[in-house]
């Protein structure tokens, strides 16, 4: 049994950044083929399904488990510059440099404009499954994710707070 | 955030989601449109432009980055580009983590590489055993050559591995193919 907060682990410490090309291309394909509603459903389904083991960890371990997960997650993403800050009612993930946006730009890829929204739609589905709420502000290379307990009573997500990603 | 560290996990999960959403045609379209013509456009450009040399450059970089422990070998030879996966990093990740949503993850490779080879004027002979081992021989579409016998081109031929047909293995074969559905399941031993 692994001690890692990550549900799925590899033999190498970090992933291959070129896979961000595939994530970006997957979003473009889904937006074209199944539309924005279908893409959001895909992200929410993934959040509840593929990430179910993480959601259970969060449900059982609460905010400290959420903080541990995001520290481990970004340590495995090459090029990240992230700080995870724990408060009594929330965990804030301060993404100073998003590894995906950084690599897509370095690779001169056309970034899907709605790219940054994926963190909200998948993150909120995961948080909700674990009994929390998630909000996102910023984007296009730097942003803040907030995972909060219901007591924090966060305002509803304003999609205008999520920046369009640009190449 | 959806990351790159466990990419193979959500990539495989995505195949199953697409199949439930739009059936097999949507999965095939995904491999061709999203992977071949978008994500891996650099591979397409290299191989269309440089043929065998482009293959060596692309797979030399990609496999080294994905599999730094070198669970693969590349064997360039006249008129054929061969590579063997003794320990596929991608399938290996899925197996170690118990991820098995889609009926045949390994099909995604011919799913995107096949259409690329077709456009570049090549065909592929290939077998995978669903246990993280496979071999590939890429030739010009007009080459009359047959696939090599085990060990004839490479001392590290995946077919020579002791577990090539071991427990859990079942082999799918592609012969002069460029289409992910153009495969034959070999009878088990």
Which labels suit this protein?
heterodimer, A: alpha+beta, 4-stranded antiparallel β-sheet, 5 helices, globular, B: 189 residues, alpha+beta, 6-stranded antiparallel β-sheet, 19% strand
Proportion in β-strands of chain B: 15-25%
Query: What proportion of the residues of chain A form beta strands (DSSP E)?
Result: 15-25%
Spatial shape of chain B? globular
Strands of the widest sheet of chain A, in order across it, are 1-2-4-3
The unreliable regions of chain A are none
What does this structure look like?
The complex is a heterodimer of chains A (167) and B (189). Chain A has five helices and four strands. Chain A is of the alpha+beta class. In chain A, a hairpin with a 3-residue loop joins strand 1 and strand 2 (90-97). The termini of chain A are far apart. Chain A has helices spanning 19-33, 35-48, 52-75, 99-106, 117-130; strands spanning 81-86, 90-97, 133-139, 142-148. Chain A is globular. By secondary structure, chain B is an alpha+beta fold. Chain B contains five helices and six strands. In chain B, strand 3 and strand 4 (134-140) form a beta hairpin. In chain B, helix 1 (7-39) runs parallel beside helix 5 (107-120), helix 2 (41-50) packs antiparallel against helix 3 (52-66) and helix 2 (41-50) packs across helix 5 (107-120). Chain B is globular. The A-B interface holds A 6-12, 14-26, 28-29, 33-34, 38, 42, 45-46, 49-50, 73, 76-78, 98-100, 118-119, 122-123, 145 and B 1-7, 9-11, 13-14, 17, 21-22, 26, 29-30, 33-35, 38-40, 62, 65-66, 68-69, 89, 92-93, 96-97, 99.
